[in-house]
Amino acid sequence: xxxxxxxxxVGIVQDIRRGDSCCTQMITVMTESGLVHVILAPETRVIDCxxxxxxxxxxxxxxxxxxxxxxxxxxxxxxxxxxxxxxxNVVLQYFDGNLLAGDNSLQLNLSPMTNVxxxxxxxxxxxxxxxxxxxxxxxxxxxxxxQTTPQKIVVMC
Length: 157
Hints:
- By secondary structure, the protein is mainly β.
- 0% of the residues lie in helices and 46% in strands.
- It contains no helices and 12 strands.
- It has strands spanning 6-18, 25-31, 34-40, 45-46, 57-63, 75-84, 89-95, 107-108, 115-118, 131-137, 147-148, 152-155.
- The strands form 3 sheets. A 5-stranded mixed beta barrel has the order 1-2-3-6-5. A 4-stranded mixed β-sheet has the order 7-10-12-9, with no helix packed on it.
- Strand 1 (6-18) and strand 2 form a beta hairpin.
- 22% of the residues are buried.
């Protein structure tokens, strides 16, 4: 699956309501630019199967190429949702064999403490290079490209 068309929304969950059916939920998220509605459907991947709760900081990824209703607040159908800690960032990108992001926006430096897993939470024992990765990190260097030692990497096999 190619993730290059995915866009990200990051914010704090304000409300969770039933969506259009009993199997969907409408999550209201307060972002830096205002309120956004995120649709959590049965096919939405939730990393670590975390139960989404009010007050939780999340990142939701949606396909930016799909048509969207022109309503306010915006409504996005999430393909992937993950919970985030305070000051934690997340990026979903293709990383080459040197662990450089496809758009040269981030260079990864792995450490023995970096937790590398598959989407279903199993340990990933191969080199994560040349794959789509969901990378969790806090600090980066001011170099070009910025470098970071990630806390966790989810390999999107």
